[in-house]
Amino acid sequence: MSVLVMDNEENEEEENKPLVRNKSDWIPKPTKDKDLEETIKTLKTNSLTSNKNVKNNLTHEEKTALQNLKSDKSIIIKEADKGNAVVIMDREYYRDSILNMLQDEMSYEVTDKKLDKQTSTMIKKLLKKHKTELYEEEIDYISNSKFSESYFYGLPKIHKSEEISNAVSEQNSEYIELLRPNDLKFRPIVGGPNSVLCRISS
């Protein structure tokens, strides 16, 4: 059995580092190694240059269809909650369904936008009160952090809809057409502004 003994000084040094800090704007100076600099330059150039010889794996008709779907503001496209399926819905139907979810006062409540500023003010007061117990990097990171509102959306639970299940059995096709199913529920999702699913689903 091997036992690794850590030096106490190393432990103390690790503990005495700030937990968070803002990104540094420091840029390393070019090295004296010409070969290394040439390699870096080549990698930067090639990575930014698009390869014009890449063949598209979509036909002209498929690309046109995707573009039409993307530009159609009357519909909204979501991935299904389960089942690895894509669901195309009437935008008004989707909006009404989500707004109906938010009417559930047991799960959601309307908050005042002023709460964001109040919370920010409280955090700054706490930082000032405990500034002797924090590193400057930590205070700077927390006090200068920018917050953004999250996005709320829903993923359709097609696997729990009896109407959709019946349509699947009747139509026996990869593409099921069903207008505004009454029993379709949505799984609520709260995603940050940089969420990939938010960008795809918006």
Automatic annotation (TrEMBL):
<feature type="compositionally biased region" description="Basic and acidic residues">
    <location>
        <begin position="16"/>
        <end position="31"/>
    </location>
</feature>
<protein>
    <submittedName>
        <fullName>Uncharacterized protein</fullName>
    </submittedName>
</protein>
<feature type="region of interest" description="Disordered">
    <location>
        <begin position="1"/>
        <end position="31"/>
    </location>
</feature>
